[in-house]
């Protein structure tokens, strides 16, 4: 609680905050964000569970094998994991170098990679629509579109956030406030990666197995 | 009539029905209610204009991020909706006295009434009440200046108000859904009900659900991270413990509801097949999702009320709470087990006997910690110096009635019995029997205890006692007969009945409902009388009940910064110990500048934008939907570029305010508990409590 100001050095190894007052505040906001992620994880968990109960509800329509393009999925996975990897470098450069452009560069790579992921995902969706695998076709497809779409919306929201962060870094520089925000954004980004690993294995790999 | 009004037609405006439709009582009730909303809103607007209070309302309240003001606004919202919920309940009881082979209201209108009544009472009365209490009390009781996220707190209020507003709008424009507060598809799906009703429900629930989730997040982070130095977990007041457990439940239990509501929206609006009858939809998924939220929700609502009862017993028995640790463990156990019992809400919906038994046993187990609590409160009262004032009258009513409600729950936990009484009025009796005495009596008792803290004057004691007794008697006459009616086979949610033997019970419950109506008026009268006599009832020194927790160590009302200096906590009930040792209210050696967050219109912008969103989706006004999404996203985007500035209260100002209070205390005569309810009580207690026991 209040006496933690003296032991700040170990509180946020990833952030390297400059002075004591804000570190305590950052402690609160980062913890709050973890709590939000927990709640979001429950949301994803429930949509996963619904998908699991509906995976056989194809109602004579396209099944998992027909809607899975493993090549595209593999590329999407690589792009999203790559984006997460680039974000780690952005976090590290934020910690060790006070050079705005270095952090921004890594953020740009992360964003481009995630944008590629979204493009491929939309292309997959477009293909599914062309083949009649629309969510209105069956319970299975409803659940598939909802789960993958929910993740995709999260990624799109994250891209918007990244755009805002880029502007803020340019405006304010790497202040403690901005560092705290980037740290939270990083948590969000890696979290979405983990969810994608779940989708990749449970929806696509298990679907074609 | 497509752009800009979507599928909205002139004939959807219900106030017009009074003139365009053939006269009937049914039409009069429906259209009259719509008129009351319109006239009520206009009256408030006119009143604010005449009194020139718009600016005051905006600056002092709507844009404030002070947790105390936000808490009070939650209570006001809850009471507005409560008035509507009670009126609906009385209308239903009146209808039932005519319901032998028919009834004055149409079946659809009846169904709309019980659906809105349930939705409003749970989501927009009970939730705002407990959220209001948690908002007001958590920072004060843990020795903090505000919530961890004050702006988010205001946004939560805005989102809750959105849900309430959509419910109120549905009374005037179009209609609400008719599938009960649980809104089970496929009955509420687009095949059976393509109208706007289920959409109103979905968006009222989903949008306010986000608000509740963020409240839970905010409260739990505040309790985990913002406690005053020295306040370890086992030194926290019991109310804070219950608030913590409720907050954790909010964070984990709201997502299933949100997911269920969004999937239902996708089904209805975009033709998905989550819960439909055809093409692989599965309605049971909805039932599971809804009750995965719905059962923890019961404890979300009742745990803070337990917290109030705990503070109440120890304060008004002038004793330390007996069995603090057991109470904390019981609260935590309830939170965990509450996630393991949801299936008992649908024992009859095709689960295997094994599953039913497992959930039946879990339901039985959850009664144990609840029983522990009742014993803890009784043991606290045992040999205490009990003051039989209004809060204690509510507590007495709670003791007698809540135990009956809890035991009827134990009867229902047995799947074999549950099969017999399921879907009858027995269920209606049961959940009213736990929610009214459990939650509502706790809230009213809590209002009597903390109103003086919030506004600086006590509530009139005699008026309060009469109202409390009206509530207890009114409740008993309205809902206890329903146990018998249920056992006689009267199904719930049924607009009429054919057995004349039920009729006397219906008159009895109508009489009870009238008493509840009087009790509601009694609350208003209590407030009115108290405001008229506020000088006589004033308790500016802040401790009218010889309180034990930190909030009583502040003036009434507390300053925006709560504490001149953040207190250091050495033990549980620290303020009580200081009073017994004879050294409360010490002046600190020096004061520091205090930084508080500045007012913001975030909550109001979210309220307006999300209400427009919900209304737009309901009526297919897609331009409004897109516009409101752009406003919400754009607002967050733009404001993230603005640095949060703070208001600084100079140390001199803090010192002046604090010294004035300390000086007033040193000049005042403390009153003993015998004069607690007369005008000698200015908020300085001549302490009379046993700390050691």
Secondary structure layout:
The complex is a heterodimer of chains A (209) and B (693).
Chain A: H1 20-54, H2 64-67, H3 70-96, H4 100-130, H5 139-172, H6 176-208
Chain B: H1 14-20, H2 25-50, H3 54-62, H4 67-97, H5 107-142, H6 150-172, H7 197-225, H8 238-270, H9 283-316, H10 324-337, H11 353-381, H12 390-413, H13 415-421, H14 425-455, H15 461-487, H16 503-532, H17 574-580, E1 594-597, H18 602-619, H19 622-639, E2 646-649, H20 651-667
Antiparallel strand pairs in B: 1-2
Helix pairs in contact in B: 1-2, 4-5, 4-6, 4-16, 5-6, 5-7, 5-9, 5-14, 6-7, 6-18, 7-8, 7-18, 8-9, 8-10, 9-11, 9-14, 10-11, 11-12, 12-14, 12-15, 14-15, 15-16, 18-19
Please, could you describe this protein's structure?
The complex is a heterodimer of chains A (209) and B (693). Chain A has six helices and no strands. With 209 residues, chain A is mainly α. Chain A is elongated. The model of chain A is unreliable at 1-14 (pLDDT under 50). Chain B has 693 residues and is mainly alpha-helical. Chain B has a domain at 389-538. Chain B is built from 20 helices and two strands. A two-stranded antiparallel sheet of chain B has the order 1-2. In chain B, α5 packs across α9 (283-316) and α12 (390-413) packs parallel to α15. Chain B starts with 13 loop residues before the first helix and ends in a 26-residue tail after the last helix. The interface between A and B is large, with 42 and 43 residues.
Offer a concise description of the structure:
The complex is a heterodimer of chains A (209) and B (693). With 209 residues, chain A is mainly α.
Task: Classify the secondary structure makeup of chain A into a structural class.
Answer: mainly alpha
Q: Can you give the mean pLDDT of chain A? A: 89
Per CATH, the superfamily of chain A is: Cytochrome c oxidase, subunit III, four-helix bundle
Number of helices of chain A: 6
Number of domains of chain A: 1
Tally of extended strands of chain A?
0
Pfam family, one (chain A): COX3
Protein name (chain A): Cytochrome bo(3) ubiquinol oxidase subunit 3
Subunit structure (chain A): Heterooctamer of two A chains, two B chains, two C chains and two D chains.
Subcellular location (chain A): Cell membrane
């Amino acid at each position: 609680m209040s006496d933690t100001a003296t032991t700040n050095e170990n509180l946020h190894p990833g952030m390297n905050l400059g002075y004591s007052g804000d570190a305590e505040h950052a402690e609160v906001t980062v913890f709050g964000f973890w709590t939000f992620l927990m709640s979001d994880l429950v949301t994803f968990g429930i949509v996963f569970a619904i998908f699991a109960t509906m995976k056989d509800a194809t109602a004579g329509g396209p099944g998992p094998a027909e809607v899975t393009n493993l090549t595209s999925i593999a590329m999407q996975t690589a792009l999203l994991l790559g984006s997460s990897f680039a974000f780690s470098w952005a976090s590290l450069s934020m910690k060790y170098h006070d050079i705005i452009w270095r952090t921004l560069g890594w953020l740009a790579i992360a964003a481009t990679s995630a944008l590629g992921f979204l493009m491929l995902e939309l292309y997959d969706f477009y293909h599914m629509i062309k083949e009649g695998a629309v969510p209105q076709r069956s319970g299975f497809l409803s659940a598939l579109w909802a789960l993958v779409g929910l993740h995709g919306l999260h990624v799109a929201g994250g891209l918007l956030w990244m755009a805002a962060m880029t502007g803020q870094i340019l405006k304010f520089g790497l202040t403690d406030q901005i560092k705290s925000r980037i740290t939270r954004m990083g948590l969000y980004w890696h979290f979405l990666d983990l969810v994608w690993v779940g989708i990749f294995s449970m929806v696509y790999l298990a679907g074609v197995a | 009539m497509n752009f800009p009004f979507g599928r909205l037609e002139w004939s959807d405006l219900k106030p017009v029905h009074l003139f365009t439709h053939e006269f009937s009582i049914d039409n009069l009730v429906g259209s009259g209610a719509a008129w009351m909303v319109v006239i009520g809103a206009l009256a408030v607007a006119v009143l604010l204009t005449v009194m020139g209070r718009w600016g005051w309302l905006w600056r002092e309240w709507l844009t404030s991020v002070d947790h105390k003001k936000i808490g009070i606004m939650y209570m006001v919202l809850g009471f507005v909706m409560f008035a509507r919920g009670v009126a609906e309940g009385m209308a239903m009881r009146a209808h039932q006295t005519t319901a032998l082979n028919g009834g004055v209201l149409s079946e659809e209108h009846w169904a709309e009434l019980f659906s809105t009544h349930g939705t409003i009472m749970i989501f927009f009365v009970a939730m705002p009440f407990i959220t209001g209490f948690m908002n007001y009390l958590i920072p004060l009781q843990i020795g903090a200046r505000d919530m961890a996220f004050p702006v988010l707190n205001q946004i939560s209020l805005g989102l809750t108000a959105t849900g309430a507003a959509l419910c109120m709008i549905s009374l005037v424009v179009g209609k609400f859904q008719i599938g009960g507060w649980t809104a089970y598809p496929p009955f509420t799906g687009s095949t059976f009900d393509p109208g706007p009703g289920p959409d109103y429900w979905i968006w009222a629930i989903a949008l306010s659900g986000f608000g509740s989730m963020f409240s839970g997040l905010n409260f739990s982070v505040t309790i985990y991270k913002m406690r005053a130095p020295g306040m370890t977990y086992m030194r926290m007041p019991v109310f804070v413990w219950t608030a913590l457990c409720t907050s954790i439940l909010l964070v984990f239990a709201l997502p299933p509801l949100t997911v269920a509501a969004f999937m239902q929206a996708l089904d209805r609006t975009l033709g998905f097949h989550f819960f439909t009858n055809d093409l692989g939809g599965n309605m049971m998924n909805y039932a599971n999702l809804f009750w995965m939220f719905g059962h923890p929700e019961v404890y979300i609502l009742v745990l803070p009320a337990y917290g109030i009862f705990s503070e109440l017993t120890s304060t008004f028995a002038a004793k330390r709470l007996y069995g603090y640790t057991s109470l904390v463990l019981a609260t935590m156990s309830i939170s965990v087990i509450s996630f393991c019992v949801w299936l008992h809400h649908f024992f009859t919906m095709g689960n295997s006997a094994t599953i039913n038994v497992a959930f039946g046993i879990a339901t039985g187990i959850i009664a144990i910690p609840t029983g522990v609590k009742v014993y803890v409160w009784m043991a606290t009262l045992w040999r205490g110096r009990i003051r039989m004032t209004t809060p204690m009258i509510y507590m007495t009513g709670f003791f007698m009635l809540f135990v009956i409600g809890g035991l009827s729950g134990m009867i229902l936990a047995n799947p074999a019995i549950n099969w017999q009484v399921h879907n009858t009025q027995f269920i209606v009796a049961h959940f009213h029997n736990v929610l009214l005495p459990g939650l509502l009596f706790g809230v009213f008792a809590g209002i009597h205890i903390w109103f003086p803290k919030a506004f600086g004057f006590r509530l009139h004691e005699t008026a309060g006692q009469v109202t409390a007794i009206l509530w207890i008697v009114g409740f008993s006459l309205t809902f206890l007969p329903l146990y018998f009616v249920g056992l006689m086979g009267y199904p719930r949610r049924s607009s009429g009945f054919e057995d004349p033997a039920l009729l006397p019970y219906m008159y009895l419950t109508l009489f009870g409902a009238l008493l509840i109506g009087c009790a509601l008026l009694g609350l208003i009268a209590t407030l009115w009388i108290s405001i008229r006599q506020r000088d006589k009832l004033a308790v500016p020194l802040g401790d009218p009940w010889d309180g034990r927790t930190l909030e009583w160590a502040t003036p009434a009302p507390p300053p925006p910064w709560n504490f001149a200096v953040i207190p250091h906590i050495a033990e549980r009930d620290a303020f009580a110990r200081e009073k017994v040792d004879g050294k409360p209210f010490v002046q600190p050696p020096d004061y520091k500048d205090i930084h508080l967050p500045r007012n913001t219109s975030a909550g109001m912008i979210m309220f307006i934008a999300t209400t427009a969103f919900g209304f737009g989706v309901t009526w297919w006004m897609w331009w409004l939907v897109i516009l409101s999404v752009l406003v919400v996203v754009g607002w967050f985007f733009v404001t993230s570029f603005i640095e949060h500035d703070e208001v600084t209260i100079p140390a001199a100002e803090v010192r002046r305010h604090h010294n004035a209070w300390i000086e007033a205390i040193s000049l005042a005569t403390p009153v003993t508990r015998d004069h607690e309810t007369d005008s000698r009580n200015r908020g300085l207690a001549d302490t009379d409590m046993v700390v050691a026991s």
